[in-house]
Every structure is written in C-alpha cells, then in structure tokens.
C-alpha cells in the first residue's frame, strides 16, 4: 500500500461477514449431516446395529438332547450315555490351523489318525462355527495340561459331552447296532436344526431304526462371550427334550446264554416268543465291541476286525444266508398235506436212494441202506430224505414256493429288525431269469430237503418255526416292546401285513407238531438224545446243510474234510409243544450233524427259558446277571 492511502475497513468487514456466513452455512450443513447420520444409526438402524453388537458379545448355542436309553424286557440297561471330555476346535476362530494342530500334538498325545480324520472333516460341508472334535475321551492329566495352556489356543476348548456306551457291548452289538459320528451323506438328509450340536447318529440295528425316537429335540442357550469366544455366563436357556427310552423284548440272560453255548464256534441263534413275536435272543458269534465305533474306531482295530477269518462284524443271524437243509421238512410237510399230494397214512418205499426214472441219477438218503416203508411221521422223526424227494417232485416248484412264501421265506418279514436279508426262495421264473435255464425235476428234488438254490437266514427259520408253534397264526418278529414316555409303540412300529395260514384241515397243524415231537422224544428221533429226560415236551427238527457238493457215489467223511468245509449243523424247534413259550433256530457253522451239535444247544436254551430263569422278580434278575457276569 502506497504512503497516504487508507485501509477500507468497511470492505474488509463485508468480506469477513461473507466468509463467516459461508463457514456458518458449511458448519450448519455438516451439523445437519451429522445429526441425520446419527438419527439413521440410532433410530432407523438401531435394531441392526444392536444385533451386530450383541453378536460380538452374545451367541446362540445349540444344546444337544441326551439320547434315549435302551433296556431289555427285565429293565436291565443295554445302552446308556456316559460323559466324556473331548478336545474341540472352532475352525473360524483358530488362526493358523496347521500350527495349532502341531502345537496341540506337543502338549497332548493325539494320534496321527485322529489328526487325519479331523482334516478330512474340515474339508467336508459343515455348519458354520460348529465345534469339531479332535481328540476323544481325554484323561485327567490331559485336561489339566490343556487348562494350563488354555490362553494360548483361541477357538480350542475341552468340552464335556454325553457319548453312547454299551455295558454289554459284545453281547448286544449285532442286536442293538451302534451309533457313530455323523458323516457327509447323513448330514445331507438329517434336519440341520434338530441335529445342531449333535455329533452322533444311529448307524445300524435298533439305534438306526428308532433314531427319530431316541434322538430327542434340540435346545438352545444365549451365552455371553469374551473376545476369544469363551463363555462368560448363560443369559437364557431352553432345555432340550431328551430322547425316549426304549424297552426291548430282548432278554439279556437268554442272550448271554446263547453266546455261552456258541463260545469258541461260529454260528447264530434266534429265539422268538410265539405269543408276541418278540425277539428274546439274537446272537451272532463271534461278536465285537461296539463301543469302539462310537467315537471312531482306529485303523488298526478296524483292520483286525475286517480281516478276521471268523468275520465278527458279519451278522449271521440276520444276513447269513444258508441252505436250510432238513429244517425245512416241517414246512414241506404242511405243503404236501394241504395240497393233497400226501396224507398221514401214505407210505413210500426207501431203498436208500431216489430216482426220477429207472437208470437215472440216484439221489441218496443219508441212511445209505434205506429205511424201507416209511410214512410222514416216521420220515420226519428219522429225517428220511426219500419220502420228501417223492412228495417234492409231485408238488413241483410252484406249490413248494407258494407254501414256503406263506412261512416268510424269500422276504424280510420283520417289523423293526434293521438289515435283515430276504434269503432266496427259488421259482422257475427266477431260474430262467438268473441262470437262463429251465427248472428241472432234479431241482425240485434238492429243494424238497432244503438244498439246491434255496437260502434262508436263521431269523427266517425262527419266524417259520414260530408260525408252526402258533398253528398258522402270524406274528411278525419285532424287537421293540415299549416306549417309556408319551409316545405310543404303534406310532413307530410298522403295521403287521401277514395273514394267518389257514389250512383245509386245521388238524394238520397238530399232526405236524406231533411229527416234530417224534424227532425229540420218539424211539427213532434224530434228536432224541437232546430231548431225553425233559420235564416238558418239545417239538423240533434237525438239519444238516452241505458246504460243498459230493459226487453221486461219494460218502461224507467228516474226519477227512477241512474244518471250514464241513457241514453246517442246524436245528429249529419250540417248547412246550402244546403251549409254546419259545421258538428257536440254531446254526453252528461247520458243526457237522444237527442232532449232535445244534439240538443240544436248543435244549439248553429251552431249559434256561422254561426252568432256570426267574420270571418277573426284578431284584432276582439283576442278582442273576451280576453273578453270571458278562462277556
């Protein structure tokens, strides 16, 4: 500014005022924007941000329901739940999974296969923030070590959970089945809400069939957590609904007896209560420890079981398909009588063999010298093959198959026995489709004595025997006896579908029962030694099933045949014969003759059920089980 010029204060004042107004407007606009944003956050989006805030602090956790218990008919516990401590990880909260696993392996004794199993599950589809178990059943020392190092492992916890336990594992493994970890396929079909937090599901047997009843309903809880995800307190809890407890027809005493009678041998026993169809015993020997499968069986243990030559994992009672041999003769007798092919008085000459035509192949009787003139009762007692060869050919495959189907052969006739196979009931159409061959008369000869193409399971033989014990009244085999709770048995037990087998002459039932009594008590009965000195009368039929075929003129020499190529020993029967309380089917693999091996086993079961076991006194039952111990 030049000398003598004066400042224009008015202009400066106006400039300042304009600038002040602009700044004031700018500040006001910023304040309005800030207030608008605060309004949006605090008022409009209040619930959204409250929820987001709570998620950092409050979580909803699923509470799995306790699995229902399983009891036998005398209220003895067969399947329970026990608490175990497992090491679990939430992958979303673990920073550096490989480093964490390596560090955990230094602190705890974690098997390499557990780590590999955990990594496989990590790659499978799963629910977000789901705890994944790494190691199971930690000991006190391992729990203490983890407590010391807990702060070093965010997302890693020691959790207590209820895990299935079978106190009589080897005895009940094939009857109850077992639970195991939920796999990828099961995860796709189960209800993700109700199974949230549940790690186990029924894999086989009763555990699988009644999974819906045993599982229960999931609960939940709101918990407050810290920044590491550890629970500080429970804010709200809705308790889960436990699964229903089941009571089975199975009798643990008889089940143990069956295992003891087959100890050291391979075989199966099925015992049914004729009045109800309840399965009293379902034994497949050898068995296995089902508890090993619950939390995951080791590779070595599974390899030992799966490669064992005696096949302990194979359920012979339900899935073993054997030629029924002469145990089929009582059913064939019903078919022959009712179809009019034979009668009670008819006699057939037995020279020791049967021929379809003169000069043709000779189908041998087990008694090579022959029994002479034989009628139906004598043929049953003596287990004469020639008589049944004759009537079998006269009936033909159509009539035999039709009647045998009424006895439950060729189908799974059970209500709730998971995994039972259907066997094979051959027909002419089946052979044409399967073998591209016609049905020959010789096939009927073999079928008439339970050989040839026909296959049946021990459970099917017990079911057919029960039908005879009931004189034609059907009761489909079932394991479930009662549900302890608000649910009804009828709600889950499938409906019966079989109609009674009504004969043209109902007295034929009694006659066939009499022929089976002759087997046990007659002077020439094949099982008279097993039936001697009994205080009750029993009805039965022995059987022998060939493992390999003999030539026409070859004779069976047990001493010269390898043990695993020897005949299977079979027996079916019931007692008392006039008012049956128990029906059984017994098979001893490679046991030789049914009369010498299988029949004594059945007699011991009859004696145990009818005479040895106390009836309904709960204290005496428990005392007896404690004294006998368990396998």
TrEMBL record:
It is a single-pass membrane protein. It is an enzyme of class 3 (hydrolase). GO terms for molecular function: serine-type D-Ala-D-Ala carboxypeptidase activity. Pfam families: PBP_dimer, Transpeptidase. It catalyses: Preferential cleavage: (Ac)2-L-Lys-D-Ala-|-D-Ala. Also transpeptidation of peptidyl-alanyl moieties that are N-acyl substituents of D-alanine. Pathway: Cell wall biogenesis; peptidoglycan biosynthesis. It is found in: Cell inner membrane; Cell membrane; Membrane. The chain crosses the membrane at residues 20-39. Its EC number is 3.4.16.4. Gene3D superfamilies: DD-peptidase/beta-lactamase superfamily, Penicillin-binding protein 2a (Domain 2), Penicillin-binding protein 2a, domain 3. Residues 267-606 form the Penicillin-binding protein transpeptidase domain. Belongs to the transpeptidase family. MrdA subfamily. Catalyzes cross-linking of the peptidoglycan cell wall. This is Peptidoglycan D,D-transpeptidase MrdA. The lineage of its organism: Bacteria, Pseudomonadati, Pseudomonadota, Gammaproteobacteria, Pseudomonadales.
């Amino acid at each position: 500014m030049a000398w003598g010029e004066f400042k224009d204060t008015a202009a400066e004042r106006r400039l300042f005022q304009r600038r002040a107004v602009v700044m004031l407007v700018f500040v006001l606009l910023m304040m309005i924007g800030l207030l608008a944003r605060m309004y949006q956050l605090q008022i409009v989006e209040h619930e959204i941000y409250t929820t987001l805030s709570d998620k950092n602090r409050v979580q909803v956790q699923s509470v799995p329901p306790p699995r229902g218990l399983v009891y036998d008919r005398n209220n003895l516990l067969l399947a329970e739940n026990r608490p175990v401590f497992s090491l679990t990880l939430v992958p979303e909260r673990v920073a550096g999974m490989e480093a964490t696993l390596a560090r955990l392996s230094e602190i705890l004794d974690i098997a390499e296969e557990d780590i590999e199993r955990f990594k496989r599950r990590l790659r499978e589809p799963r629910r977000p923030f789901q705890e994944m178990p790494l190691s199971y059943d930690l000991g006190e020392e391992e729990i203490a070590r983890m407590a010391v190092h807990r702060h070093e492992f965010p997302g890693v916890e020691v959790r207590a959970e209820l895990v299935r336990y079978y106190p009589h594992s080897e005895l009940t493994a094939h009857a109850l089945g077992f639970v195991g970890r939920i796999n990828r396929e099961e995860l796709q079909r189960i209800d993700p809400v109700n199974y949230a937090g549940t790690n186990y599901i029924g894999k086989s047997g009763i555990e699988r069939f009644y999974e819906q009843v045993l599982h229960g309903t999931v609960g939940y809880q709101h918990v407050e957590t810290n920044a590491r995800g550890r629970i500080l307190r429970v804010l709200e809890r809705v308790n889960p609904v436990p699964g229903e407890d089941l009571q089975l027809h199975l009798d643990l005493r008889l089940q143990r007896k069956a295992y003891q009678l087959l100890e050291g041998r391979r075989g199966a026993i099925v015992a049914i209560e004729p009045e109800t169809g309840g399965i009293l015993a379902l034994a497949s020997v050898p068995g296995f420890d089902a508890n090993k499968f619950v939390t995951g069986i080791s590779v070595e243990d599974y390899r030992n079981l799966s490669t064992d030559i005696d096949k302990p994992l194979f359920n012979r009672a339900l899935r073993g398909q054997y030629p029924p041999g002469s145990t089929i003769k009582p059913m064939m007798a019903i078919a022959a009588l009712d179809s009019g092919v034979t009668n009670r008085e008819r006699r057939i000459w037995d020279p020791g063999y049967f021929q379809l035509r003169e000069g043709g192949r000779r189908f041998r009787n087990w008694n090579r010298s022959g029994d002479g003139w034989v009628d139906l009762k004598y043929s049953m007692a003596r287990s004469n093959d020639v008589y049944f060869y004759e009537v079998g050919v006269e009936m033909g495959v159509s009539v035999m198959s039709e009647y045998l189907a009424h006895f439950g052969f060729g189908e799974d006739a059970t209500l709730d026995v998971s995994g039972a196979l259907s066997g094979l009931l051959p027909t002419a159409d089946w052979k044409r489709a399967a073998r591209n061959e016609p049905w020959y008369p010789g096939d009927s000869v073999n079928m008439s004595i339970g050989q040839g193409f026909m296959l049946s399971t021990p459970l099917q033989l017990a079911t057919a025997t029960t039908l005879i014990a009931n004189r034609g009244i059907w009761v489909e085999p079932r394991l479930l006896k009662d549900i302890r709770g608000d649910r009804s048995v009828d709600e889950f037990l499938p409906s019966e579908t079989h109609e009674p087998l009504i004969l043209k002459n109902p007295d034929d039932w009694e006659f066939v029962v009499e022929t089976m009594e002759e087997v046990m008590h007659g002077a020439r009965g094949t099982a008279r030694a097993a039936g001697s000195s009994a205080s009750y009368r029993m009805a039965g039929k022995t059987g022998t099933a060939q493992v390999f075929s003999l030539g026409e003129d070859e004779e069976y020499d047990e001493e010269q045949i390898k043990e695993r190529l020897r005949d299977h020993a079979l027996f079916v029967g019931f007692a008392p014969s006039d008012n049956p309380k128990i029906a059984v089917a017994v098979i001893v693999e490679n046991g030789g003759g049914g009369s010498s091996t299988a029949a004594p086993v059945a007699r011991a079961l009859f004696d145990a059920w009818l005479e040895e076991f106390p009836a309904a006194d709960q204290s005496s039952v428990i005392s007896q089980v404690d004294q006998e111990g368990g396998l």
